[in-house]
Write a structure and sequence with these properties.
Two copies of one chain form a homodimer. Chain A is mainly alpha-helical and 187 residues long. Helices cover 72% and strands 2% of the residues of chain A.
DNA sequence: CTCTAAACTAAGCAAATGCTTAGATTTAGA
DNA sequence: TCTAAATCTAAGCATTTGCTTAGTTTAGAG
């Protein structure tokens, strides 16, 4: 009946996500997206409505991408040892040819703060809570821990995870590794 | 000989810092600064050169402002107990009529990343190191600790401090307090 | 008081922003 | 093969960005 799209929406969103991850929301312009995604502005607006829409899809794509390491943690059965491995896996995940991008979710929380769009902020808080619950699930494998301890430690590890993002932007890998080691010392 | 300035540079920088702290660098426009500082754009450029200059002065002013709580830590003689109090003091410091602004330094690290202006990034890294050294100084008061332990713990606490900023933007005060408690459990 | 040098106001600059629209191009079904 | 519908290109829209400049006001030395 008519012409078909000459691009794959998933593929172009992956590229968009890369830009947002590296530069943040405001510091990524539609012109930059156009160039990186390899399609015209018209096509961007036709597929995703507006810049906000491209960003929301990018967040979803990020979650899909990070699923590789969260699934690994889900399969792990070592309690706190598995979570510690998750921290190291995340360091690799967030490092892209020596460019420290941190976590897209943490970056966005930092940029938009509490004045950010409610739809986006809700998405981000949900992501944080999923990770926290996953930590709690794994901590339960350490049989000696009671429920209040598990919840406190899961919360602690969630925030420690968030902290890795600003830290990774100014510190050396050695310092980050020392940090992870000390973080898990008293659990 | 000529007209004198009708504003105090320190006073207007305090207001500028408030905006940068709340909104970040890119999300604060010169028009917004003009309004908040209460002076014309011409005066801004006459006093500080450009937006970048206003921001640098704002960072310096922030350091001066946070000195109140770092000085308190310097005077403290309780080792790790004093540092823990510093964490709580910082929570109060960064909370402004229920608006969670985090730490201006951490915010900027997050926004600009490693692509940020070298002069600014240097200023930020210096600030982090000063805090880390202050932590080390206080940790030395705990006589049972050896030097390598002190350095690792100081690094750990510095990053934990950084993490408080993204965390404060989505989590409750209770969660942040739990986090601080767990952070200091095994030090 | 006068005069000059600095500080003021406000209009305006080019460039970049998010988004739209007019028109050419392509493709699949009649 | 023709036609209609969806895609594409690229120019252009109003607004905002950081910064400048022309022209007025003001204060203090002589």
């Amino acid at each position: 009946m008519a012409r078909s799209k000459q691009y794959n929406e998933g593929e172009v969103i992956e590229k968009a996500m890369g830009l947002f991850w590296k530069n943040g929301y405001e510091n990524t312009s539609v012109r930059m997206l156009e160039k990186e995604m390899g399609i015209n502005q018209f096509s961007i607006y036709a597929s995703f409505g507006n810049k906000h829409g491209v960003f929301l899809e990018s967040i979803k794509y990020y979650k899909k991408k990070i699923k590789i390491i969260t699934d690994k943690l889900k399969r792990s059965n070592n309690g706190v040892v598995g979570i510690k491995q998750y921290f190291y896996d995340f360091l690799d995940f967030s490092m892209d040819d020596n460019c420290k991008k941190g976590c897209l979710v943490a970056n966005t929380v930092n940029e938009l703060g509490e004045n950010g769009d409610p739809v986006i902020m809700d998405e981000l808080l949900n992501f944080f809570n999923e990770i926290r619950e996953l930590f709690a699930y794994n901590l339960k494998q350490d049989i000696e821990k009671d429920e209040p301890t598990i919840q406190k430690q899961a919360n602690y590890l969630g925030i420690a995870m968030l902290g890795l993002t600003p830290a990774s932007k100014i510190l050396s890998k050695k310092q980050l590794e020392d940090y992870i080691e000390t973080t898990f010392l008293n659990l």
